Amino acid sequence: MLKTNDRDLLVISKTALESDAALEQEVLILNELLHEVEILRNIACSSEIFDLTRCRIFKKPETIIKQLQEKQLRSFVFICNKN
After folding, report:
1. What's the per-residue H, E or C state across the chain?
2. Where are the domains of the chain?
3. Residue 5: per-residue pLDDT
4. What is the dihedral of CA 25, 6, 80, 58, to 10 degrees?
């Protein structure tokens, strides 16, 4: 079975779910989706870092991972999603 995270999910549906099994299936799918999205490598691939003090944009995932793992970002350094 899939390891579930300790998270609270609020599932809002336009249609009433037929049974508890349908709700359980919906929650499992959401957990799988969130697990994929929350992996640090995937976050790094879908983000850019703008460093306004150095006038640079960082796009390489390895560089972004280093920046994300720092305890505190420097002033005028912004993490932006590519979307």
Report:
1. CCCCCCCCCCCCCCCCCCCHHHHHHHHHHHHHHHHHHCCHHHHHHCEEEEECCCCEEECCHHHHHHHHHCCCCCCCEEEEECC
2. 18-83
3. 61
4. -110
Q: How far apart (Å, rounded) are the C-alpha atoms in residues 54 and 42?
A: 25
Beta bridge partners of 78: 50
Residue 28: pLDDT band by 50, 70, 90 thresholds?
confident
CA distance 11 to 9: 6
pTM: 0.61
Residue 21 — φ and ψ, nearest 5°? -65, -35
Q: What is the DSSP letter of 4?
A: P
Among 1-15, 41-55, 65-79, the range scoring the smallest mean pLDDT is: 1-15
